[in-house]
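Appendix C reproduces, verbatim, an entry submitted by the partner laboratory led by Prof. M.T., so that reviewers can inspect both the input and the predicted structure.
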Amino acid sequence: MMNCLNSFNLYKDFGTVRLFLLSFLGMIGYYIVYNLVCNGLIEARETVPFHFFIYFACALVVYPLHKILHGVPFWITGYKASLTIERTGILPRMYCVISGAIPKRVYFLGMLFPLIFVTSVLSLLSVLFSTGILYYSVIGTINFGLGVCDLLCMVRLVSAPKHAFIEEDRDSLRILIKQNA
């Protein structure tokens, strides 16, 4: 038997406009820091010329990749997670739906995995193929913008007990603890 310790919904707590603004500011900050670090540490021999269609393709690929990467730690650890696509308005939305209660550590790993993995891969690519730093920074910026909501969830979950379980649905997160008999 589990008791709900806390429940929250980021979209209701922050509002869609504020989340969008925080995401946009996070993207700007990431872009600046990534380019400063790359330009300071890596000497680019040449840069790839600007191609709008390549940028557009990168932007389209990052969103589904980010959502798929959320599910990877859950699939590896044996928890059930599925990807669902829902049409709302103009663009479809993709969700990584986790069924059941997940231990806090596994949930943290699942939420932070896209940020850690994509940033690590892009850093490695920047060192190995420095000509594409401009494209890598765009991919990383979009990925970080998508991850701002994940980071806000993590900030809210840090105060949860170590032995807590996290249960989520599309709208909210619940922090559950086992009830002692």
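The mean pLDDT is 86. Additional entries are available on request from the coordinating office.
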